[in-house]
TrEMBL record:
Associated pathway: Glycan metabolism; pectin biosynthesis
Keywords recorded for this protein, A-Z: Cell wall biogenesis/degradation, Glycosyltransferase, Golgi apparatus, Membrane, Transferase, Transmembrane, Transmembrane helix
A GO biological-process term: pectin biosynthetic process
GO CC term, one of those recorded: Golgi membrane
Record-given protein name: Hexosyltransferase
Originating species: Oryza glaberrima
Composition-biased stretches (Basic and acidic residues): 94-105
Bilayer disposition of the protein: Single-pass type II membrane protein
Domain of life of the source: Eukaryota
EC number: 2.4.1.-
Length: 544
């Protein structure tokens, strides 16, 4: 085929080039042999001291030696003529190679990038060996190609000037290849360049990871402004104005109770707004928000000025829960772990639900990084079969979690004797809890036992999720995956169909929807439930 003929032609060209190099080397070596065999003081032809045919100490060069010199000079002349002719031959080959390359603009761009890599390798090699003319030519060609690439548009045709620059670079690379034919030298140079590139990639990855951590842990400027404004205005209110009106007229047991533990005002607002929007009977909804003492005034002020009508809301601070351990707010700090998702006291408050809500028997706990898209009242109708927790399993959801052994240390006897390493992990973020059964089975006591055991020796990875797997082991009923789709905070491959059919979507991961580093295609699901014309958001320059 045409491809095979092209390969054979190229191979033949390389063989001719190699043969010419051998001629040059042979000619040079023969010339050295002649010089080494000349007697001392002998002259070479042309009037140079030691030239053949001249007297130096009265000795003449033999006819045989003169013949050897002539043969050498003939070989050099032939080689020089062939090399001169090869300039045109190489130009033709370069044109042919360029014309044979794929016609697409993108392919030409890749070709130029490959040329740059080779040229820079030859440049470093030539600089070390003092080939000044080749160095200048390589630098010129590199600048030309870089200039072409910088003005390149993948949607436009390849200009003639660009093709000329590609051809010129091919010619220069051919010269460099003839000047430095030893593959071992170029291999070493390219290996060094590869190593340097890998080190740069590692450094950039490290820097990216660090900056991502900073972005995750840093509250956006607008959110900080919002919290400050809300807090200052809350303390300007009359004490009587700091309370929510008692609006619910039915018994607590007739309401759908949703708990949200959060220190983020806007995130909580989105959960509340989306739940009401999706509900078939929002007047039967009651929200229970628990936050920390620092964010309590801002959370109160937001919902006082933006009441979740027709639903009802209660907001508490951790400081109001006097029965909590005295060190509860800081007992979860761990050396070397700075991610607030793993050290937050609010994340661990989920293990005290019956104590936080002593008058409730069933409720849904929502994380503050979720959006509710369907009516959730059906969760209260699910038979939990005498178990405590209803949750979606993540073994097949593709959100990065798999089996229990990925979170828990199964080398410890207290773990391996009580748990199945292959057990599927259950998600947090949207859970239905039977608090009556929880109290009966003493689940909070089990939590405290495991928490103290982990303080003596490391039994699981950081955060509340691994511990929750042990606390609710054999206490969880798997829910249909359509109730809860996870991973919008890290997985860019989740399909639109899976997202839009889900009752709850969860931005689990670092890329939260209120951060600039969030995944763009998922932002609108969250943004839809914030009114960006709100005066507070306008004043703090918070936009979509």
């Amino acid at each position: 085929g045409l491809g095979e003929e092209a390969v054979e032609e190229e191979a033949g060209g390389r063989e001719r080039e190699a043969a010419l190099l051998l001629v040059l080397i042979a000619a040079a070596c023969g010339f050295v042999v002649v010089l080494l065999n000349l007697p001392d003081g002998r002259a070479l032809p042309g009037g140079v001291p030691g030239a053949v045919g001249e007297h130096t100490g009265g000795t003449h060069v033999s006819v045989k030696e003169r013949r050897m010199v002539e043969i050498v000079r003939q070989r050099q002349d032939v080689a020089a003529q062939e090399l001169e002719g090869q300039t045109d031959e190489n130009a033709a080959e370069a044109d042919e190679r360029i014309s044979r390359s794929p016609p697409g603009t993108k392919e030409k761009l890749w070709m130029m990038q490959d040329q740059l890599i080779m040229a820079k390798a030859y440049l470093q090699f030539a600089s070390l060996h003092g080939s000044a003319h080749l160095v200048r030519e390589l630098k010129l060609r590199i600048k030309e190609i870089e200039r072409v690439i910088s003005h390149f548009s993948s949607s436009s045709r390849v200009p003639t000037s660009a093709l000329q620059k590609i051809r010129a670079m091919e010619m220069t690379l051919s010269k460099a290849q003839r000047a430095y034919p030893h593959c071992s030298h170029m291999t070493a140079k390219l290996r060094a360049m590869t190593h340097q590139s890998e080190e740069l990639v590692r450094a950039h990855r490290s820097e990216t990871s660090f900056l991502e951590q900073v972005a995750v842990r840093t509250l956006p400027k607008g959110h900080h402004c919002l919290a400050m404004r809300l807090t200052s205005e809350y303390f300007l209110l009359d004490p009587k104005e700091r309370e929510f009106p008692q609006r619910y007229t039915m018994q607590m047991g007739d309401l759908y109770h949703y708990a949200i533990f959060s220190d983020n005002v806007l995130a909580s607002a989105v959960v509340v707004n989306s739940t009401i929007s999706a509900s078939k009977d929002p007047k039967r909804i009651m929200f229970h928000i628990v936050t920390d003492a620092l964010n309590f005034p801002a959370m109160m002020m937001w919902f006082l000025t933006n009441p979740p009508n027709p639903a009802t809301i209660q907001i508490k601070s951790l400081d109001h829960l006097k029965w909590l351990p005295a060190d509860f707010s800081f007992r979860f700090k761990q050396k070397g772990i700075r991610d607030p998702r793993y050290t937050s006291a609010l994340n661990h408050l989920r293990f005290y639900l019956p104590e936080v809500f002593p008058s409730l028997n069933k409720l849904v706990l929502l994380d503050h990084d979720v959006v509710v898209q369907r009516d959730l009242s059906g969760l209260w109708e699910i038979d939990l079969k005498g178990k405590v927790n209803g949750a979606v399993e993540t073994c097949t959801s593709g959100d990065g979690y798999h089996q229990l052994e990925s979170l828990v240390n199964f080398s410890d006897p207290s773990i391996i004797n009580k748990f199945d390493a292959k057990a599927c992990i259950c998600a947090f973020g949207m859970n239905i809890f039977d608090l009556k059964e929880w109290r009966r089975q003493g689940v909070t006591t089990a939590y405290n036992k495991w928490f103290q055991a982990d303080k003596r020796r490391r039994l699981w990875k950081a955060g509340s999720l691994p511990l929750g797997q042990l606390v609710f082991y054999n206490q969880t009923v798997p829910l249909d995956h359509r109730w809860h789709v996870l991973g919008l905070g890290h997985d860019r491959s989740i399909g639109r169909e899976a997202i839009e059919r889900a009752a709850v979507i969860h931005y689990s991961g670092k890329l939260k929807p209120w951060l600039e580093i969030s995944i763009p295609k998922y932002r609108d699901y969250w943004n839809n439930f914030l009114d960006y014309d709100n005066p507070y958001l306008q004043q703090c320059n918070i936009h979509m």
